[in-house]
Description:
The complex is a heterodimer of chains A (72) and B (260). Chain A is mostly beta strands. In chain A, 10% of the residues lie in helices and 38% in strands. Chain A has one helix at residues 24-30, and strands at residues 6-11, 14-19, 39-42, 45-46, 62-70. In chain A, strands 2-1-5-3-4 form a five-stranded mixed sheet, with no helix packed on it. The longest helix of chain B is centred in the last third of the chain and has 21 residues, at 221-241. The two termini of chain B are 36 Å apart.
Amino acid sequence: MKKIKKIKIKINGKIKSINQDSNLSLVLKNLKIPLNKVAIELNEEIIDKKKISKIKLNKNDKIEIVHFIGGG
Amino acid sequence: MVNLKKDSLIIANKKFNSRLIVGTGKYNSMSECAKAIKLSGAEIVTVAVRRVNISDKNKPLLMDYIDPKKITYLPNTAGCFNSKEALRTLRLAREIGGWKLVKLEVLGDKKNLFPDMIETLKSTEVLAKEGFKVMVYCNDDPLMAKRLENSGADAIMPLAAPIGSGLGIQNKINIQIIRKQTKLPLIIDAGLGQASDATIAMELGCDGVLVNTAIAKAKKPFEMALAFKNAVIAGRQSYKSGRIDKILMGNPSSPSKGII
């Protein structure tokens, strides 16, 4: 069986190891992110949530997932 | 009688019945925050944009406690110290769910939390061009308030005193001058400590007040939320009623004619 290669990416400042060729949608799904309540940045660029299944992730990609919390 | 029902607060063409805006920070719990908001009668609440906690997926979400369909979320850039950070934050906020009405707050000093007005002005110009409806936290400088207005701000939000200080309104003259010069909604954004401060702000002619710490950190937040609600209504009613002139000497309330 072919061994799946892993790559390292950063999500919200934390290093995560994911399968090479994973798309953004899968990674967010595994993290159980409620897509209707967040915004997502990939390498400091805002991502259209409708297109996440088409976005392939690369080594050292930086993802930021934000939502609303209490604030003044 | 003043019909307060018809006296709506209009921001960027949107009507609100309550003139009290409340922050959602500093509460002991989400449920405490939600209850205080309900009691305050506020229809707009400020919220912060922060990273999702990816390691604790069961952490309660603000949206589960405060329904954004019923209460207008006003994303805020608190914690941003330059234009780049503020713009990034608000563009993300818009992306969460189409929010265009935002509160811009670019701080300049970590201790006094005064706004950096140069970065604030720059950000206002960019945001207005990008179609945002920008409510701007600002200093109490009438000239800067004018420049913000000319740059496309949708509401002017001067501080009354430093954020979270509870000092109350320290700048009545400046607030009154800004009131005279602008037709934009004028909302006191920071520094209030107790309900009567809100009444004073409204009596100065402000269109609303934004309160967070004074409610969230009161010994009894629910009671204080209600007090602020009533104080804002009282102040607005007082302002609309037209106060008497101030005179130096006494003026008896009972007629002098017919004294025995």
